[in-house]
Amino acid sequence: MLSYIIRRILYAVPIIIGVNVLTALLFFYVNTPDDMARQVLGEKNVTPAAIENWKRDHGYDLPAFVNTEEPGIKKVTETVFFQKSVPLLWFDFGRSDRNNIDIGQEIRTRMWASLAISVPTFIAAVSVNLFFAMMLAYYRATYIDIWGVVLAVILMSISSLFYIIGGQFILGKLLKLFPISGYDAGLHSIKFLVLPIIIGIIAAIGGGVRFYRTVFLEEINKDYVRTARAKGLTEGRVLFKHALKNAMIPVLTNVVVSIPFLFTGSLILETFFAIPGLGSFTINAIHSQDFAIVRSMVYLGSILYIIGLIMTDISYTLVDPRVRFE
Amino acid sequence: MGPVIKIKDLRAYFKTPKGLAKAVDGVSFEIPKGGTFALVGESGCGKSVTALSIIQLVPEPAGYIAGGEIVLNGRDIVPLDEREKRGIRGNKISMIFQEPMTSLNPVFTIGDQLMETIVLHQAKRKGAARKAAIEMLAKVHLPEPERLFDEYPHRLSGGQRQRVMIAMALACKPDLLIADEPTTALDVTIQEEILRLIKEMKESTGTAVLLITHNMALVYRNADMVGVMYAGKLVEAAPTQELFRNPMHPYTIKLLRSIPGQEKRGKALDTIPGAVPSAVSYPAGCHFSGRCPREMEGCASIEPPLVERAEGHSVACHLHDPGFMNKPHSKPLRQEPDALPPLAVPPSERETILEVRGLKTWYPIRKGVLKRTVGHVKAVDGIDLSIKKGSTLALVGESGCGKTTAGKSIIQLIKPTNGEVLYKGADIATLGERRLKPFRSALQIIFQDPYSSLNPRLTVRETIEEGLRAVKPGMGKEERAEKVRSVLERVGLGPEAMSRYPHEFSGGQRQRIGIARALAVDPEFIVCDEAVSALDVSVQAQILNLLKSIQRDFGLSFLFITHDLGVVEYIADEVAVMHDGRIVERGTTADIFSAPKHDYTKKLLSAVPKIDSRLADLWHLPGLGAVK
Q1: Residues A62-103 pLDDT 10s
Q2: A51, A27 in Cβ contact below 8 A?
Q3: Count of H helices and E strands in chain B?
Q4: Which of A20, A274, B105, B324 has the most crowded Cβ, counting Cβ within 10 A?
Q5: This prediction's pTM
Q6: ipTM of the modeled complex
């Protein structure tokens, strides 16, 4: 087990370095610092001198990957890649291009707002999905099941933007149950969080229920379920005890991998509800073409994905006694 | 004392898109306390649905019990409500299944699963239930029951898991134990242990047993009464000895005569033409009409009732009904000869076609952070074999002994680690893929599973032509098509089969396609890897007859890899017994079977249930005039 985890973490090292290089290629080669400067300065008042000034001010005036003018080790260190991208490996995100803020500091403060909305949404959505999926599996091949699936398909076919705007209009504006958008610190934030959480759950319910239902139905046709029935157990017990624990194995792959992403929040929800989390942080950075922030968030997303995958594999051992890493 | 269970005219139907499938269409039998009733029949005849109906677990909502009574200790359980039925399941009637590997829940411990039944039906507290569970594990002779209690199922072998299933089924001392093919997935030595255990448990608890199986020999050894099922109906039922001495129904007789065995060597096995009718369209009369060797004019329209014709011996056949035989509709439609044609095999030539010396196929075991090789799985660990031209060598052994790996290593589908494979004097084990190519067509293989060994996306013609293209690139398009047509004809399939896909064929037909594919490239040596193991006995007989006849016609040599010793006795000239990657004994079939020397061979041979070979002389189709 331990040797497995060590091996997985060692495997992650070259992947993380690769991600770092790829991100750098994307941001310093495909989209050169000249392009960045031009986009930030705007098309009208752009002069070669202004571009050079901007690059010098923001530290992009070095060569991208190899500095042929410098001697020795400086050939490598005196480059945009080494100055801007390599520090990401130890989570030094540097300063933003626009207003020179400390990105790392910003991430640390904003992630709490993201977590405040994403964690409850995640837990509630998974529970609600599992509950309805099991209900449909229990009533399989009846009208409840058939219409349940139809409803799930309808729900997943509707854009989440519709749920957001519809929710804000009906629950916020007409019924005045919740504020339409905004955020406050501490406990006062709760009234602002309820509406986005409800909408987050509704937006996830169609696809989730359908997927979990399939997983359950697959388990229900297995031999051990027949054995459990032959013991004289109630259908509920067969389903909730025997099938559920086995169904958790595929469900886990689907769920655990997304846990690290709770930190980065939701791009759309946070933007629409004006929640100052990492999702809206990223969207704002894209709008204002702050490539330092976008680069940091892209890199962070990749790292979180790798962490998610390792967590998934480890979590298998917790639910499936057959998987023991040796 | 009345019977423990009495089934009266049981019907279980399934709603399918093609119509109502009458899986069980009027079955009646009873089992006394402590008795064993065996229900035998080929796949799809309704045995398992009968079992599920008795325990009230017909898969709903498609399936339902359409009629009949299931009387358990004097009470019909069909009309009971679900709560009462649950009180019977696992308590009064319990069941064990064919697949011990998947029948236990993988994520709960053995103890949890065993205690669940005990707590449910005996209202015991956890401590007492744990004690009872450990006692049950000890009773089914599992080692270290205390430790096993906390183990998960995957740590146990198939045989051990079946023991756990038996412990679970018998924990509440049921009145009836249904054993649905309890040993089919297990090795023969394990099979014997499990059957002995069931018998022992039956004697100690007095439970009645309904044994469901397709294996006639197993029935002969283990049952008091036998019911033969065909197409949803019980066609014959009798005390075991009586049934094997005096089988009455033409289907039973045909079935018995299709079982391969030593006494049938040199003769063709009996076969049944056609296929079992679909459950949605049975004939109005006798379900066996259309395939019966003694069919009469009235058979297809008048249903024969199951009537006692000798003491305790009931049969559903008009041939044994004097009233029917006196009427004009008894005019024969078909009258097959009773004697089976001899299957002359020319004496095997003395020339050795293939010789294996010190063949080893090892797989590395890797461990640790750096995945270093810490040892080897010695799948095949130095075997010597030799096969003469035109003869059959059987490689026998239990699962995991390395016989399949050996077969694939010999024809170079797996590169052996070490050793020589001399084909007509040339060592092919050392050749690279390019130099091996000329040998590929000479060395062919037929696989076990006729369902998954054909590519479902290719037509039969494409499947057969693919091999031809690879090994005979010079062949023209017309010539190739002609070759496909001729090999299909040789294996008994018409040219219309060429443009069809594998799913349109039955298991037996698919195995014919597999044989045609191998034959198409003009092989000289064929590995038959469990080639008839997945087939029903009457279909298996057809394939064995076919293999024998192509061997004779083309002078082929077979390496017959199998665990079925009846097949070996029937078909093989020589036998090699494999155990743990090594050959433990080699010799002619007669020598090995009559005087085995190695302990493992002795153990293997004694574990195989066999029907007394003298009985085979008694199995004759009734003459039409013989019945009065």
Answers
A1: 777 777 887 878 877 888 888 888 888 888 888 888 788 898
A2: no
A3: 21, 22
A4: B105
A5: 0.85
A6: 0.84
- Cβ contact (<8 Å) for A226 and B94? no
Q: Answer whether B255's CB lies under 8 Å from B47's CB.
A: no
Instruction: Work out the pLDDT band at A325, boundaries 50, 70, 90.
Output: low
Cβ neighbour number for residue B491 with a 10 Å cutoff:
22
Distance (Å, whole) CA A304 – CA A325: 23
Task: Name the residue with tokens 């009455």.
Answer: B248
Q: With a cut of 70, which residues of chain B have pLDDT below it?
A: 1, 344-349, 369, 624-628
Range name among A199-208, A252-261, B159-168 with the lowest pLDDT average: A252-261
Q: What is the pLDDT of residues A89-99, one digit of tens each?
A: 888 888 888 78
Record: contact B106-A321, CB cut-off 8 A: yes
Each residue of B204-241: pLDDT tens digit?
888 999 999 999 999 999 999 999 999 999 999 999 99
* Residue B38 token pair: 């065996």
Mean pLDDT of chain A: 86
Residues in A closer than 8 angstroms to B89, CB to CB, are: 229-232
User: Do B13 and B199 meet the contact criterion of CB atoms below 8 Å apart?
Assistant: no
Whether residue A250 is preceded by a cis peptide bond, meaning omega within 30 degrees of 0, is no
Nearest CA in chain B to A2: B369
Smallest Cα–Cα separation from A207: which of A263, A137, A271, A254? Answer: A254
Q: Are B390 and B352 in contact (CB under 8 A)?
A: no
pLDDT reported for residue A36: 80
b/e map B84-113, b = 16+ CB within 10 Å: ebbebbbbbbbbbbbbbbbbbbbbbbbbeb
- CA–CA gap between residue A205 and residue A157 (Å, rounded): 11
**CB-closest option in A3, A227, A319 to B104:** A227
pLDDT at A182: 80
Per the document, the length of chain A is 326
CA distance A54 to A289: 14
**Contact by Cβ (8 Å): A119, A265:** no
Angstrom distance (rounded) from CA A29 to CA A285? 20
Residue B265's closest CA among B615, B619, B613?
Answer: B613
